[in-house]
C-alpha cells in the first residue's frame, strides 16, 4: 500500500443471535471441532504477527463471551455491538485508531485460511486507489435466477461478472467509518462493509478467496465447516 505498512487491526462483529441456526445459543458459541465457532474465527488474527489489535463487538446481553479464555488475550478489546451488523462494526471502528486499516471478519466464518488472509494483506494499491480497499470473494459458479415475486423466475442472471462476497474485508478505518455513518444517516441497509464503501463512491478490489471460507448460517453448515477444518488440519498449506 504505497510501500508504507499501516497499522492493521481486526474487527469481529459478534453480537448476532443467528436465528436461522435454530439453536438455543448464538451460533458463534456453538461447538465446532472442540472449540467454539468464534474461537476458530479469531484464530488466524490472533496468530498473525502484523495484526496489532482485535476488536470484538458483542451484545450487551451476551452472557457467553466472558466464559471464553481467548477473549482475555492482550490483543483483544471487547466493545458492545449495536442493533445491526453495521452498527456493531461502527461501534468497533469508533474505538479504533483512525490511521489504521481494518480487517472486518464475520464471527461465524471459522474456516479462514492464513494463505487467504496474507493474500488480502498483500494487496497493492496505486496512488489513485489507496483508499478503495479490497475484499475476499469467489466468482459465482452456479446458475443464478432473479425472482419477480419470491416464487417465480423473472430471468437468469449473467454470472460472468458476479462474485460472492466473503470476509475479511479490508479498508482504512476512517474511510470505512465515514462510509458506514453516511449509509446509516441515509437509512440505507448495508449487508457488508463493501456495500457502504460502494455507496460512498469507492470501487473495492476483488481478491480471489477460497470457497471453503463459508459463513455458518444454517444447521447443515456446522457439519460442513467441521469437515473443512478437519481437512485443513490434515493438509495445511
From TrEMBL:
List the lineage, top down: Bacteria, Pseudomonadati, Pseudomonadota, Gammaproteobacteria, Pasteurellales
Q: Which GO BP terms, alphabetically?
A: isopentenyl diphosphate biosynthetic process, methylerythritol 4-phosphate pathway
Q: What is the official name of this protein in its record?
A: 2-C-methyl-D-erythritol 4-phosphate cytidylyltransferase
Give the metabolic or biological pathway.
Answer: Isoprenoid biosynthesis; isopentenyl diphosphate biosynthesis via DXP pathway; isopentenyl diphosphate from 1-deoxy-D-xylulose 5-phosphate: step 2/6
Record-annotated PAS domain positions = 193-221
What keywords are assigned to this protein? Isoprene biosynthesis, Nucleotidyltransferase, Transferase
Site features described as Transition state stabilizer, chain residue numbers: 20, 27
Q: Site Positions MEP for the nucleophilic attack: which residues?
A: 159, 215
The reply to whether Nucleotidyltransferase figures as a keyword in the UniProt entry is yes
Q: Which Gene3D superfamilies match?
A: Spore Coat Polysaccharide Biosynthesis Protein SpsA, Chain A
Q: Which family does it belong to?
A: Belongs to the IspD/TarI cytidylyltransferase family. IspD subfamily.
Q: Does the keyword Hydrolase apply?
A: no
The EC designation for this entry is: 2.7.7.60
Name the source's superkingdom. Answer: Bacteria
Task: List, in alphabetical order, the Gene Ontology terms for molecular function in this entry.
Answer: 2-C-methyl-D-erythritol 4-phosphate cytidylyltransferase activity
Q: What does this protein do?
A: Catalyzes the formation of 4-diphosphocytidyl-2-C-methyl-D-erythritol from CTP and 2-C-methyl-D-erythritol 4-phosphate (MEP).
Catalytic activity field: 2-C-methyl-D-erythritol 4-phosphate + CTP + H(+) = 4-CDP-2-C-methyl-D-erythritol + diphosphate
